[in-house]
Amino acid sequence: MLIDTHVHLTEMLGFYMTEDMVSEMMDKYEISYIILSNGDSAEYGHDLKPIPLEWQISQKDSFQRSIRFARIHSGRVGIMPWIKPAGETADREFCRMVEENLDIVKGIKLHAYHSRTAADSQKMIPYVELASRYHLPVAVHTGGCEEASTIHVYQMAKRYPEVNFIMVHMGLGTDNLEAIDLMAQADNLIADTTWVPLESAVEVIRRYGSRRIVFGSDSPIDGVDTYRFNRSGEPSMYRRYFNELEGIIGEEAYKNLMFRNAIRIFNITDFNIE
Q1: Helix or strand run (H / E) with residue 102
Q2: Does an H or E element contain 40, and which?
Q3: 33: left (phi over 0), alpha (psi -120 to 50) or beta
Q4: What is the pTM of this model?
Q5: DSSP string for residues in 189-253
Q6: Strand pairing partners for 166?
Q7: pLDDT along the chain (274 residues), means of 10
Q8: Pseudo-torsion of CA 17, 262, 143, 134, nearest 10°?
């Protein structure tokens, strides 16, 4: 069984990840369940400059697209609204959308890089309090700019110990050690495997056991076959997760990483786990 906690839709920022691609990926690789967020909510470009407002899509419209997809694929898709804290907030309408879709809403997604907003920013408080109210985790992109540093996720995790904070990428482009070290200081910090070398995942499990890490991939960022090939056509690092990791950490830890932790952390109750 495989639950991928980090899957996207979007046609923003030069990415092309459509509903058809996600559906094909799920079927081709027999993915039991995914957690989806919609990158149409990006506020800043790759150059960390604001995306012109006339090109931006509201977090509600982005959220609605995710809801439609999840309803079509009932029992296979949960969603995390990709929020826009730099320019929007968790207003009454956004909260209503969360409340009315709690059966499929599994968390809140902050892309700290593409919103240039740190996880411990004052702008995040309405979203984190919403997550606390409904026992939702907060997934945060980490890596690439100061606002996306893992230390900011840690600081908000200390402020809200009842909320699980997922450090997506564990500091993209780093050796992951800061993220791994910070986990010792906050039990509600959760690791994620997206573009994380196998050795870092093994180190998380060595230090903290196998219950504080979830599998994520960014699929279909490199196409329907992201699990097998990267954008240049070379073998994807995820092959090592599928082919080598169980032999290193054992069957029980492997099951925790690949699906059991996701079921618990994201409170996934809307599919058959037999």
Answers
A1: none
A2: none
A3: beta
A4: 0.96
A5: EEEE-TT--HHHHHHHHHHH-SSSEE----BTTT-TTTTTB-TTSSBPTHHHHHHTHHHHH-HHH
A6: 139, 190
A7: 97 95 97 98 97 96 98 96 98 98 98 98 98 98 98 98 98 98 98 98 98 98 96 94 98 98 94 55
A8: 100
Provide the β-strand partners of residue 38. Answer: 9
Cα 140–chain centre separation = 7
Ordered DSSP codes for 136-197: --EEEE--SSGGG-HHHHHHHHHH-TTS-EEEETTSTTS-SHHHHHHGGG-TTEEEE-TT--
- Residue 41 tokens read as 């909510």
Dihedral angle sign, alpha carbons of residues 234, 239, 150, 264: positive
The contacts of residue 189 (CB under 8 Å, 6+ apart) are 153, 154, 157, 165, 167, 179, 182, 183, 212
Q: Could you tell me which of 93, 111, 87, 161 has the C-alpha nearest to residue 131?
A: 161
